[in-house]
């Protein structure tokens, strides 16, 4: 599966969403902490479905209800 989110974008998204550790994000999206660590380091690409989920989380956070 091709990656669709560069590590820099993932780090910014984690910060904007308030996730301070790889484990925090991993728990929130249901993946392992080691997967998040590999994505952040750029050793493995962020899968497209995960990138879409993170972008939807950012969009939902920006909405005014």
From TrEMBL:
What the entry lists under InterPro entries is as follows:
Cro/C1-type_HTH, Lambda_DNA-bd_dom_sf
Give the molecular function GO annotations.
Answer: DNA binding
Q: Give the highest taxon in the source lineage.
A: Bacteria
Q: What is this protein called?
A: Transcriptional regulator
Name the species this protein comes from.
Sphingomonas parva
Recite the lineage of the species: Bacteria, Pseudomonadati, Pseudomonadota, Alphaproteobacteria, Sphingomonadales
